[in-house]
Amino acid sequence: MKILYFAWLRERVGKPEEEIALPSNVSTIADLMEWLAGRGEEYAYAFENRNVIRAAIDHVHVKADAPVGAAREIAFFPPMTGG
Amino acid sequence: MTVTIRLQQEDFDVGAENAVLARGHTDIGAIVTFTGICRDSEAGSDVSAMTLEHYPGMAEAEIARHVETAQARWPLLGVTVIHRYGRLVPGDNIMMVATASAHRQAAFAAAEFLMDYLKTQAPFWKLEERGRDKKWVDAKSSDDRATERWRKD
Lengths: 83, 153
Prior knowledge:
heterodimer, A: alpha+beta, 3 helices, 5 strands, about 25% strand, globular, B: alpha+beta, Aldehyde Oxidoreductase, domain 3, four-stranded mixed sheet, about 35% strand
């Protein structure tokens, strides 16, 4: 599964994207954030304030309770500031 | 219905884009154009440049979804959305939305609807430079409220 990071999440994690093997106990976006946060200091810093982080599955915005099992690509990012 | 959605680093020409939107149509009575421009100050301090990051693939898809919603809601004859990415300096164009309709009301409303949604839902992020300092721009709750008002329950 491909995981992408944007803006300050990308800076904190230190990479724009990576491939991960989804652990069997991760079923939702919230689970995935919790699991990622436990992968090291940089991830803990990136995911410390999880309630402000937005997620998208296969280019569609989703909430924290969305199931991740069938996803090809999951992105994490801060609230958007375009326009 | 002419729909143009483009993400690009290079500048755009609003007049030329309007001409494309109107080409071949004699049923268009109104085109409303919004242009977002990089300004040199924010919250009272000088901004020397800004870099726009985006999520390729999703940004186009998200804009297309909101254009479809606008088409379903107002009698539109054309929509153009162009959003730049990369480093911009004060005075540079950031993005434009143009909506075409037979009458002005639909064109104004659809343009505003699209702007409100693009600001809060399209995956773009601004990094502001103030001299050597760089800071990610915080999302504004006023933008969320502007988006909320279009929601139909």
